[in-house]
Inverse folding.
C-alpha cells in the first residue's frame, strides 16, 4: 500500500498538513505516516511530542489513523527521503518555523526537497479548505508531461473538476501539438483544456483566478524548475507569487 507522508515542524502549518494528508489518503487508498524532523541542538523533546499528539488527533478527526509516527534529527531532506520510500505524496507547509510570515517566499526546507526528490509534493498554506476544483498548468515543451500523466493516473486528482491550461498560443505549432497530446492523455477525465496567453506559471494562475475558483494548483517539477521560469541558476524559484497564495500546490 502506498503512503502519504506528512512532514511537521513547530510552524502554524502543522494542522493544515494533517488535513491535506487526510484528504489525499482516502482516494489514494493510502495510509498516513507523520514525520517530525528536529534540529539536534533544539532539545525540544516535549514540544515534539505535543506536535505529534496533535497530529494524531487531527488525523483521527478525519477518520484516518496514523500508520507510523516518525521522529528524526538532522538534515531534513535526508530524513524525508529515508522515511518516505513508499510515499505517493509528501505533504509539507510552503514555509516552516523559520520562514513563516514571509509571503511569496518558499521555505528553505521545502525548496531543498523540491529540488532533490522525485516524489510528488503537496505544498500547503496554513488553512485547509475543501478541494473540488484544480487548475493544471502545462507549457508547450513536449518533454514536460508529468503533470497531465499524474492527473490522469491519480483518482484524487482526476476526480476533481479540472481545467488544464497551456501557457501560450494555440497558433504556435508546439503548443498546438501539446494541447492535442493532453486531450488524448487525459482520456476519460472530464477536463477543460485550453491555451492562455501567459509567460509564467504565476501569471497564468493569477489570470485564471481572477474569474475562477481554484482549490488546488497542479504543475510538474520539470516545468517549475525549467530555466525559462526559474532563471538560469534556479535563483527565481524561492521568491514567487505562487508561494504567497492560500491555494495549495501539487507538484509532481
Amino acid at each position: 500500500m502506498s503512503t502519504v507522508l506528512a512532514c511537521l515542524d513547530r510552524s502554524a502549518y502543522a494542522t493544515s498538513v494533517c488535513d491535506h494528508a487526510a484528504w489525499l489518503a482516502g482516494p489514494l487508498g493510502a495510509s498516513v505516516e507523520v514525520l517530525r524532523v528536529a534540529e539536534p541542538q533544539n532539545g525540544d523533546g516535549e514540544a515534539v511530542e505535543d506536535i505529534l499528539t496533535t497530529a494524531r488527533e487531527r488525523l483521527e478527526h478525519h477518520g484516518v489513523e496514523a500508520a507510523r509516527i516518525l521522529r528524526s534529527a538532522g538534515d531534513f531532506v535526508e530524513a524525508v527521503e529515508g522515511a518516505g520510500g513508499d510515499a505517493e505524496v509528501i505533504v509539507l507547509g510552503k514555509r516552516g518555523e523559520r520562514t513563516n510570515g514571509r509571503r511569496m517566499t518558499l521555505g528553505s526546507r521545502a525548496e531543498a526537497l523540491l529540488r532533490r526528490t522525485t516524489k510528488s509534493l503537496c505544498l500547503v498554506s496554513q488553512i485547509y479548505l475543501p478541494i473540488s476544483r484544480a487548475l493544471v498548468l502545462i507549457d508547450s515543451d513536449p518533454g514536460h508531461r508529468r503533470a497531465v500523466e499524474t492527473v490522469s493516473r491519480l483518482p484524487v486528482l482526476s476526480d476533481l473538476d479540472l481545467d488544464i491550461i497551456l501557457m501560450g498560443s494555440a497558433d504556435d505549432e508546439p503548443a498546438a501539438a501539446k494541447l492535442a497530446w493532453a486531450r488524448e492523455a487525459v482520456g476519460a477525465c472530464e477536463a477543460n483544456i485550453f491555451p492562455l496567453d501567459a509567460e509564467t506559471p504565476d501569471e497564468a494562475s493569477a489570470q485564471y483566478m481572477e474569474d475562477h475558483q481554484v482549490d488546488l494548483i497542479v504543475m510538474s517539477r520539470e516545468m517549475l524548475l525549467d530555466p525559462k521560469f526559474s532563471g538560469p541558476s534556479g535563483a527565481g524559484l524561492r521568491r514567487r507569487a505562487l508561494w504567497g497564495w492560500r491555494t495549495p500546490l501539487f507538484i509532481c
Remarks:
- The chain is about 40% helix and 25% strand.
- The first strand starts at residue 3 and ends at 8.
- The two ends are 19 Å apart (CA to CA).
- The mean pLDDT is 89.
